[in-house]
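Posting this for the archive.
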Amino acid sequence: MQATLDMLVEHGISHITHRKIAEAAGVSLGSMTYYFDGIESLLSEAFTQFAHQMSDDYRHRMEQARNRDEACEAIVDMICGEKIATSYNLQVMYQLYAYANRNPALKIIMQDWMCRSQQVLEAFVDPITARTLDAFIEGMTLHYVTDRHPLSREDLGRMLAKIVG
């Protein structure tokens, strides 16, 4: 699964093959085609594993928060930090977004991932605010890594304070 994700990051979704993945994983091409009936099943499994790992990391970070203020700090850490919003993770996420847009079965992986994130946030806020925060995190993570002048932690904290009231 890791080799699949690595090849996604290196080559992109449109240039990934069983052969490239097998070579990167150090396994025979026959093993790849024996265990996975096609590239889509391999990608689905890799994306599912990735989404669950990201959800686990997210939940673990949020579980350290004891109140709403600490939850907001955790969110800022996730947007600005280098543990969850790494360049590698973001590249995998963007590949998943693009691929899921054309593959309804993969949309379920994303929808389940969003639900898990929102459920974690609901320990601190109501469901509508949790959904808003989830969208904010997604969008601000993208802005943080691509903006020429990303917002400061303090500015992000102020924005979060407005969202959570």
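The chain has a mean pLDDT of 91. Residues 52 and 136 are 20 Å apart (CA to CA).
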